[in-house]
Amino acid sequence: MGMALHKLSLQFLKSIGATYYIGATGYRNIPMQRIFQLNGCIMFEKKVIFRLNRHST
Q1: Chain centroid offset of residue 46 CA
Q2: Integer CA distances (angstroms), 54 to 31, 43, 48, 57, in order
Q3: Around Cβ 35, how many Cβ atoms within 10 Å?
Q4: pTM score, two decimals?
């Protein structure tokens, strides 16, 4: 179902004149990465995100 919905969304974007699409997902979300690939998307950039947890003292 996810793949079909993503593909439908890509088709809609194309129908309204979009010339490109940028999607994102987490590195652990393998199912979504597969959906991107199966619908013709290619990975063009990886990002590294840092987080600092501060605890009240």
Answers
A1: 11
A2: 32, 33, 20, 9
A3: 19
A4: 0.80
Domain ranges of the chain: 1-57
Q: What is the pLDDT of residues 30-45, one digit of tens each?
A: 999 999 999 999 999 9
Residue at 49: amino acid letter: I
1-29 burial, b for 16+ CB within 10 Å, e for fewer? eeeeebeeebeeeeeeeeeeeeeeeeeee
DSSP state letter for 31: H
Q: Note the helical H segments in 1-57.
A: 2-15, 30-38
As given in the structure block, the two tokens for residue 9 are: 């969304």
Q: Which residue has the tokens 């990975």?
A: 43
CA distance 4 to 45: 24
